[in-house]
Amino acid sequence: MDTSVVDVELGIEAKPGLESFDTDGSIDVLCLACDSPAGDFTVRSMRRRTPNPHDVVIDMKYCGVCHSDLHFAAGQMAGVTGAVEYPMCPGHELAGIVKAVGAEVTRFRVGDQIGVGCMVDSCGTCARCEAGEEQKCASQVATYGGKDKSGRAAQVPAGRQTLGGYTDTFVVNERFGIKIPDGYPLEAAGPVMCAGVTMFDPLNNFGAKNGTRVGIVGLGGLGQMGVKIAKARGCVVTVISGHASKERFALECGADRFVVSSSDDDMRRNAKSLDLILNTVPVYHDYHKYRNLLVDKGGRQVLLGLHVGFIGALLAGGIVGKKSTLAGSAIGGIRATQEVMDLCAAHDIKPDVEVVPVTDIHRVYQSLDDQNDSGKRYVLDLAGTMTGTISRSEMGPPPTLAKVQKKPSIFKALWETFKILVLFRWR
User: Fold this and answer.
1) Are 132 and 202 within one domain?
2) Domain holding 258: CATH number?
């Protein structure tokens, strides 16, 4: 028997248990948010917008914790993206169940499994949006830390930065919801919509197919997904790591070969052996050293980690297009996100996740800042552990975050762009 009810005034269909609405129609929700760049998280009550006829209301079950969450919560990208508005609620690896739909929603029904990735809005009409590349739209709105431009990503109070997925309830325009296939575990779904599409998109864009020799630098949360997705496409996969101890895990993930980047002999033996390198290292490093592993004609390294080199690579790509042997790639669009979600479900590809209570967030951030050598993706158990009675003492001390080696700024990004254009030959 369908227990859904219809709220005529708000134009939504909902199951009993939907949060009560305030007099302005906004929803009272719980958020895990931090008050400063120290990453001092607590659970507190906040508000989300009145659902409109095109909105879906999500009963959140899980949210993955991405390294980008740490970068933004700690204000490490403020020099490029602008100041962070606190309290900040990160999270762009959302997975839950539809609990209410607007009257004009067509893609989802109450009870469906649903996810949300890195975006919650774009203009919807430009050439990039029409091509399924919403992440390149000038009006794209990030799931957290973004600014509403159209009303479709409105926040409470109006004008504040978007609140992300560390929450018990989320409201999103249906266009930016991702269908999670029945049977695919929700605790594994969130990272697919971030790490998964981040690896899938450059494999797609640079033509990786059966027999393509793909190198994956780093075997953290991004790297392990890259190995599995590339193998599902028929690629020959080499994992490149500075730690020989990662070889066993690399092979367990499905890699065909392993290169120790800290070994000059190993790097020489594998010179000119790869067609495409996906570099997932999340901090600034000597990415130039991997250039010699690429074939002379057609080889390309793609930077994916969020640091000043990545920004420089994106800017350089905007100048010379595909003529450079170095490129930057961020997230994929909604179409690509749905495609990788479906691929992972079809091939039973799941990230290696550790589900943790929300009170572990400080420990998780510390692990990420220490480079998370386990390769796991941490996932917050929101449905099982998010309550309004959690005290600050239960959260434990905030993480001790290392000083960023090269804090991004526009000047540093431009300098990095110049170095890339000079040092990386054009074809």
Assistant:
1) no
2) 3.40.50.720
Q: Tens digit of pLDDT for each residue in 62-90?
A: 999 998 899 899 988 776 667 899 999 99
Judge whether 79 lies within some domain. yes
DSSP string computed for 342-381: HHHHHTT----EEEE-GGGHHHHHHHHHTT-TT-PEEEEE
E strands, 158-309, are 169-173, 178-179, 213-217, 236-241, 257-260, 276-279, 300-303
Residue 253 included in any domain: yes
Q: 116 lies in which domain range?
A: 10-189+344-395
pTM score:
0.87
Residue 411: strand, helix, or coil? helix
The full DSSP string for 72-95 is HHTTTTHHHH-PPPSSB-----EE
Tally of CB atoms within 10 A around 411: 10
Q: Are residues 286 and 373 in the same domain?
A: no
Which tens digits make up the pLDDT trace of 93-130?
A: 999 999 999 999 999 999 999 999 999 999 999 999 99
Number of domains in the chain: 2
| Same domain assignment for residues 387 and 416 | no
Q: Which tokens hold the place of 261?
A: 């980047």
